[in-house]
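dude i think i finally got it to work??
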Amino acid sequence: MSPERSAFVSDAQVLDRSVYQLWLLGLNVEQAVFYAQRKLADRQSSDPTTAPDPTSQTNAPHTRSQSISATPNPPTTNPASTSPHTSQSQLTTIAPPPPLIRALITSQYRNFELLEHYLHRPRHLQTQLIFPLASETQRFLIETYYSFDERVMRDLLGKRLTSRARKELEEVAEKTKIPLAGCRRMFDNLKRIMKRVEDSEGNALQVIRNDFLLNKKMASQYANVIFICTYRLDTSKKKLSNLKFADFCDVAQIFRQHFSVQPASPTTNNTNTNSTSSTPTTPQNLPLPVQSLSIGEEVDLGLAQDSRDIRTLLFNSKDVMDDYRGIVTRRIAGASASAIEKGGDKAFKLVLRNVLGIGAGLGNNRDLRDIFVNLIEKIVEPCVGMGWTASDLETFLNAVVQSYGEVNAISVSVRKRYTNSLSRLLTGIILAASRLYEIPQKT
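look at this
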């Protein structure tokens, strides 16, 4: 008996990418028709490349701040190279009458509304049968749907994604000139991804890439935003007002890499040498305690405790401090860092105390929330005030790490116990502070 088979025949679905951009921005049909007609009129009366596009959206799938044109220029390559299921724009290659423009946009909007259910669950888009789509088209639809404007995302950093926060998007839309529906799409996408990460086990980046099929850069950005929002890291202080989304995103990634416990994937074991991250352990090879949250990477309370222990060890003993400072000073002298040498004992104690204070604060909710402003107030600003460059700070903290194992006033067993934690903390501080050094500070 032959197996039963099902088959269906339909016309190829053509999805207009330019209309898709208008739909994603939140324009309704009337607005989209008006905009398309205006763009066509501009093209007929002047050079279209000289007119700025007011609907540009930053953070397109492959660039940091790429503008997404609502009516991109026609492709210059052979039409056969374009996916059979998408077109760059049917509105830019012809000049249809207004009724035809309206019919085209209305038809495209209906298609996008049918597809949106599957875009919420990108893996389902691969198996749905309503729209047979090429893999390239699927990738474009997914990554463009989950793209976002960095100004909108900057406003969401550190907030709880509640219904109240969603209502406040009206102010964000007014400030950024992004239509409210577009802002809500970005909000809902972030909330959806965050919920999925919270409900999953394993690395946040892997969960996002596997479940939402996003490229590595975009998935990493979402993981960084989720980290900031989950721990409610404060990004609203006046001294942080000149930091952009990319600045917070880069520093948050450093926190995730150096100040958190990386969970093992449920499908792999911790001995896998191909793993890109490892879970720090205590000298007894037992897992460190972590906060009882589920966000993929969790702040390492063991690192916070070790930072407190190191601070007590160094600052409660004059012999230990003098021995340590002498070794660091000799090492820095060999590096010809005159600005650091001028700071003397006062600079050594100030910077070291502040660095260890930030590490100890990882275990305190209030201190953790203020970690961005603390990096500026306790590390960047004092170092700038002493005439240190980012390179000087790196030289100093590297000397602190390298000299720790030579402090004979500390027993060998104690040195071994805290070496890894001190190295992790100072490496993270070096990278984060160096990134913030690039940003002009507000007075």
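Strands lie at 15-16, 86-87, 260-261, 298-299.
im so relieved honestly
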